[in-house]
Amino acid sequence: MNRDSKIFVAGHRGLVGSALVRRLLAEGAENVVTRDRVELDLTDAKAVDEFFESVRPEYVFVAAAKVGGILANATYPADFLRENLAIELAVVGAAHRYGVEKLLFLGSSCIYPKFAPQPMKEEHLLTGELEPTNEPYAVAKIAGIKLCQAYREQYGANFISAMPTNLYGPGDNFDLATSHVLPALIRKFHEAKEREDPSVTVWGSGKPRREFLHVDDLADACVYLMRNYSSGEVVNVGVGRDVAISELAELVREVVGYQGLISYDPAKPDGTPRKLLDVGRLHKLGWKARTPLREGIEKTYAWFREASLTRAGA
Ligand code: GDP
Prior knowledge:
Layout: E1 7-10, H1 15-26, E2 32-33, H2 45-55, E3 59-62, H3 70-75, H4 77-97, E4 102-106, H5 135-155, E5 159-164, E6 166-168, H6 181-195, E7 199-203, E8 209-210, E9 212-214, H7 215-228, E10 235-237, E11 243-244, H8 245-256, E12 261-265, E13 274-275, H9 280-285, H10 293-313
Parallel strand pairs: 1-2, 1-3, 3-4, 4-5, 5-10, 6-9, 7-12, 8-13
Antiparallel strand pairs: 8-11
Helix pairs in contact: 1-7, 2-4, 4-5, 6-8, 6-10, 8-10
């Protein structure tokens, strides 16, 4: 992948896609191609084929997906399964048909079994039952990985897959009904501070443990893998450390500067008890995450405040 390579970032409006575009432009990429939802519906295989036929990208990052937090997954299982499968079939298939040099598919750490040994290694894939709260999404992502591996096996396509842990950063979804925990907590503590609420409610028991990777680190890892990795085996991308949701809540409370109390709502689901990736493979390949969690939350909170001001002024 060179400066003038034609690089298609599918899903460039999302958290991951926008970070990838920022990362590529920062290193001087001159030919980054993007299409928004109105210009190209990525679930429409015919439209995607026509796009690949006319544009002929050389490198493809598949950052497009229907994503959401624990509640959104449980509420819209059919949408999560159907849309993700449709995007994968359309994009990965077209990439093969139109001779893409290399493609990187983004999965998720929820592809691993609910009770996989921790930290989770790449070989734990398909060794046990999935976490029910995100099973449709996980099944779709596993299908995407298998599709990439199958094209490699049958046709020699250079398609690789990266499995990021829980992500956060600028451009995240802060809608409390559909977001993941980290942006939700930023928003909850921020608004509670503004309103001078006596307490903030965190879902579940606070005991589940999760690992959080800043999306700019993920984008850096994806570009690194695009340049330095060519195997069908998936690669975990994480920081190799996790925190309890209660610790995360405390950290976000401090960063936001909220003085009130934290309470827990046991009626909301905890989801999988622990999700920590083994990042040994990635470290051996020569890449490590750089952003410490507190610094990442500070940066994301700054972005959130900026974005709220823009919204209020609009
Ligand atoms: P998961 O990693 O797929 O389970 O997705 P989430 O990021 O949505 O949730 C992670 C954990 O954070 C779960 O145990 C949630 O119950 C917990 N959590 C605590 N407060 C919140 C909240 O306000 N929003 C979300 N989405 N999760 C929360």
